[in-house]
Design brief:
Oligomer: single chain
Largest sheet: none
Structural class: mainly alpha
């Protein structure tokens, strides 16, 4: 099948997903704004403890330094990647996630790193990002199981969490096998001839999996996950919410991370607010107050990342539109090679 015909169904699916995610975000945002009592929000903002607000904003920015460290550790067996290169790509990717749909920042950060670190091919950057997601999933599931001892949740949330846990275990098992087994054993085990892009992915995972830095990065992932409670906790303190600060903040962090797995509108606007408000109402906060707090929390954790990402992008001297176009073209090129391999 010609590459154009292969690309057309993907484009239709991408547009359909874009429309659905934005409709979901709009519905969630309308639910939050309805009955939020926005006339009270400015009075609450004026009475916040602004020292805690500043700590919340800064901690949410600095926590991603741990992700930069983790990424550099993962890639250390493959090539030389500085902490600055990894961190800059992550902040630019976060900025792209806030302004572009369908988490385009994940693609952009991998492309940007492979372009700045000449030792790292784009396929290796993708493989390392996949490992990051599995590590995050493992720690997130552990945190979710701990949340079950902190609070009673609705049955639908419990079922969704357990389903996610099963998926994470399966993906982790496959990933672990890919990192430690040889490519020939994949072909022997499954009895299939894999396309070239998949063989490249397995080879990249195999190289990363035979490094002690893999284990270091796994524990850094745990620190990265747990530190994400800080901006939530400090903003709860800043607003003097009548909830158990640490418990509510921890549960909120876990549920927000779980919800981020679902494709969302730029900036996670809508679903982020809905999860925040629903979590706080579980802990007894009045519904209107919880909805107003979700707007404040979204602003505090989103706007500083937008500013930092924009500044780093400006320092780099790269246009985001051009960067997105080049990254998409590189990804399409890899998909085109996969299509040719499947025909052959």
């Amino acid at each position: 099948m010609p590459p154009r015909l292969v690309e057309r169904p993907r484009r239709i699916k991408a547009w359909a997903l874009f429309i659905l995610t934005n409709l979901l975000s709009v519905a969630c945002l309308m639910w939050v704004l309805n009955g939020a009592g926005l006339s009270h929000i400015w009075g609450e903002i004026r009475h916040m403890n602004w020292t805690w607000v500043l700590v919340a904003a800064l901690s949410n920015v600095f926590v991603f330094l741990l992700q930069g460290w983790r990424w550099a550790l993962l890639l250390k067996p493959i090539g030389r990647v500085s902490f600055w290169q990894a961190t800059r790509a992550i902040y630019v990717g976060l900025f792209a996630n806030e302004v572009l749909p369908l988490r385009a920042g994940e693609l952009i950060r991998c492309f940007m790193l492979s372009r700045s670190a000449t030792d790292i091919p784009l396929s290796v950057a993708f493989a390392s990002a996949l490992i990051e997601r599995i590590f995050d999933g493992a720690w997130l599931m552990a945190c979710f199981l701990f949340c079950l001892h902190l609070h009673r949740f609705p049955s639908v949330l419990l079922k969704g969490g357990y389903l996610l846990g099963v998926m994470i275990v399966i993906l982790a098992a496959i990933l672990g096998y890919a990192m430690y087994a040889k490519k020939q054993s994949w072909e022997l085990f499954f009895g299939l001839a894999w396309p070239r892009w998949f063989n490249t992915l397995i080879e990249d995972l195999h190289m990363i999996g035979h490094s002690r830095y893999l284990y270091f990065s796994f524990f850094v992932s745990g620190a990265f996950m747990l530190c994400q409670i800080l901006p939530i906790y400090t903003l709860v303190r800043a607003n003097k919410l009548a909830v158990a600060s640490w418990t509510a903040s921890f549960v909120m962090m876990v549920l927000l991370r779980l919800s981020s797995i679902v494709p969302q509108a730029p900036g996670n606007l809508g679903l982020f607010n809905w999860v925040t408000a629903r979590t706080l109402t579980l802990f007894g906060l009045p519904t209107a107050h919880a909805r107003r707090f979700s707007i404040v929390l979204w602003a505090v954790v989103t706007l500083p990342l937008v500013v930092v990402g924009f500044v780093l992008l400006a320092i780099t001297g790269v246009n985001l539109t051009h960067l997105h176009r080049d990254a998409t073209a590189a990804a399409k090129k890899r998909r085109g090679e996969a299509a040719v391999d499947s025909i052959q």
